[in-house]
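Quick start: read one record
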Amino acid sequence: MLLSRGGWGWVLAARAPRRLSLIRKADVMDRTALRQALLEMVENNRGEPVEAFVESMNLRTDLGLDSVDMVTLVMEIQDRFHLRLALSELEPVQRAGQLLDLLEARLSSPSLPRKAAA
């Protein structure tokens, strides 16, 4: 379970994520691999395939993710990539491309900690 607040709202999530394919650490820096991993996680949250996944898609309106889906998606991202994303990093994220930019920056920058303080 997770309790989250801020721009993404207060949400209590108790979903069990489905098993997702793993990405090798060497692949993590590649945007194509990140995009594929994000697509898998979005489809997992939606429970159905995404017809056309483009980076300009709004996570809420275009992909239909509600607040519980958003929190679950963040939890899956943090577990999959061994990251802790701060609320301040997530608040401006509205589009798939913005989320990919954030993940790419966090995974490729040696100066940023892999786990942010809670």
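The chain has five helices and two strands.
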